Amino acid sequence: MAEIVVFHHILGLTPGVEALADDLRAAGHTVHTPDLYGGRRFDSIQDGAAFSSGPDKPDLDALADAAVAELPAGVVYLGISSGVMQAQRLAQTRAGAAGAILLEACVPITGDWAFGPWPEGVPVQIHGKDADEFFAGEGDVDAARGIVDAVPGAELFLYPGDQHLFEDRSLPSYDAEATALLTSRVLEFLG
């Protein structure tokens, strides 16, 4: 069984993020869900973005580093939307990552935003909606395709629709059918 760190999205550690983590726990995996917002939750992407980039913004890199400091090297990093920044950064820069699962966001492996090349031997799976204004509209799907082209065995799964945060069952954007498929693919990846 895998040890997994789930980094929440821009709205915070919502009940829907916890439910996804619980689904992975139910399959026998050990799952950590660090709260990088210190208990804060937001009702809109705009409010979450204002907090995470405002004058009193948390140091998300430092908080994520602290959250994994005592964990073994061989963990799987899973990020949801803005949480992908931490999951992908750690998968690419912390030695010994067992894998990365990137939901609804992706950072290029070259260029200004890159964390560097993808580490050899680290499997990666990427999921997103094909008409999501953030994933498809802001270039993340292109970054995902770049990883798939460069990394042997990397997988990209696109789901029909435009909902963002579709796997969070505590939000109106939840898509049960797509989430069931995503979860089965994630569990297969972890297996």
Write structural notes for this entry:
- With 191 residues, the protein is an alpha/beta fold.
- The protein has a single domain (3-190), classed as Alpha/Beta hydrolase fold, catalytic domain (Rossmann fold), CATH 3.40.50.
- Helices cover 35% and strands 15% of the residues.
- The protein is built from six helices and six strands, in the order βαβααβαββαβα.
- Strands 2-1-3-4-5-6 form a six-stranded parallel beta sheet, with helices on both faces.
- The longest helix has 15 residues, at 176-190.
- The radius of gyration is 15 Å and the shape is globular.
- The chain starts with a strand and ends with a helix.
What would a concise description of this structure say?
The protein is an alpha/beta fold and 191 residues long. It has helices at 15-26, 45-53, 60-68, 84-93, 140-150, 176-190; strands spanning 3-7, 30-32, 76-80, 99-103, 124-129, 155-159. Helix 1 (15-26) links the parallel strand 1 (3-7) and strand 2 (30-32).
Strand elements, count: 6
- Assembly annotation: single chain
What is the CATH class designation?
A: Alpha Beta
What's the CATH topology label? Rossmann fold
The figure for the number of domains is 1
The side-by-side strand order for the widest beta sheet comes to 2-1-3-4-5-6
What's the order of the H and E elements?
Answer: EHEHHEHEEHEH
CATH architecture: 3-Layer(aba) Sandwich
Structural Rg? 15 Å
CA(first)-CA(last) distance = 7 Å
Derived structural class = alpha/beta
